[in-house]
Amino acid sequence: MSSSSSSDYPPGVSGGKFSPDGKPLPFAGNTLLMHLSPTSATYTYLLQLHEALRTSSMSHLYTLLPPPSWHMTIFEGVCDQVRDAEHWPRDLAQNAPLDEVTEDFSRRLSDFSLEDDGPPYLMMINGLDPLEVGIGIHLEARTQDEERRLRRLRDLLAERLKLKMPNHDNYGLHISIAYLLRRLTEEQERELKGLVTRVLAWGPKEFELGAPEFCTFADMCKFDRKFYVGLEEEKKL
């Protein structure tokens, strides 16, 4: 019998999102995010990072996410497998079926107005997220005013959905590129940081994101848009 346990793996595996060999596991939920446009220069240059990671001798340490899934989460929704008071709408039963919660959110967001907090959102890449859960690109708003707009939007969404996570005020904006499958040694972490940093050094740092999308997902590899949030119907096309 193997002596390994879930604690031997990083959160993406121990938390049930991926198997130890990198296969996506069922992990359903809903969320609000902005997909990175495949026509943007940033998307094109992150494809180079994706390829460098795919062909690296360290590729057994992580599982890459499909480029069409690349996005920045603006507001975490709920996950079917995470049902506690801190991660669930305060006015909904914690045993409510996920589909019912998604429909409830859809109704609450149907007349949500972005007002002065609408797109485009002016973002920039600011290095690599800590290598704890996965390989993520750390994002920041380009200006303090833009940062305030994004944080205000998160506050308004939390109020509308009656959902405020413990990390609401310090949630780090990012784009996830891969999930770690193994805990890294110091040498592996140093080598992986070096690879990603070298690629990030020459690419474009600034890009724009469009309107928030209310999405559902069955696992971490695909996020299906139900509708854009806060836009007139004719602008959704």
Please supply descriptive tags for the structure shown above.
237 residues, alpha+beta, Cyclic Phosphodiesterase, Chain: A, five-stranded antiparallel β-sheet, 5 helices, Cyclic_Pdiesterase, DUF1868 domain-containing protein, 2H-PEstase_DUF1868
Give a short summary of the structure.
Residues 17-130 form the DUF1868 domain. With 237 residues, this protein is α+β, with helices and mostly antiparallel strands.
Write a structural description.
Residues 1-21 are annotated as: Disordered. With 237 residues, this protein is an alpha+beta fold. It has a single domain (11-108, 119-228), classed as Cyclic Phosphodiesterase, Chain: A. Helix content is 27%, strand content 25%. It has 5 helices and 9 strands; from the N terminus they run H-E-H-E-E-H-E-E-H-E-H-E-E-E. The chain has helices at 11-14, 41-54, 98-109, 144-161, 186-202, and strands at 29-35, 62-64, 71-79, 121-128, 134-141, 174-180, 206-209, 213-219, 222-228. The strands form 2 sheets. A 5-stranded antiparallel sheet has the order 2-6-5-4-7. Helix 2 packs antiparallel against helix 5 (186-202).
Basic shape:
globular
Mean pLDDT: 94
The Rg value, from CA coordinates, equals: 18 Å
How does the major sheet shape up? Answer: 5 strands, antiparallel
Indicate the percent of residues in helices.
25-40%
Blueprint of the fold:
Blueprint: H1 11-14, E1 29-35, H2 41-54, E2 62-64, E3 71-79, H3 98-109, E4 121-128, E5 134-141, H4 144-161, E6 174-180, H5 186-202, E7 206-209, E8 213-219, E9 222-228
Antiparallel strand pairs: 1-3, 1-8, 2-6, 4-5, 4-7, 5-6, 8-9
Helix pairs in contact: 2-5
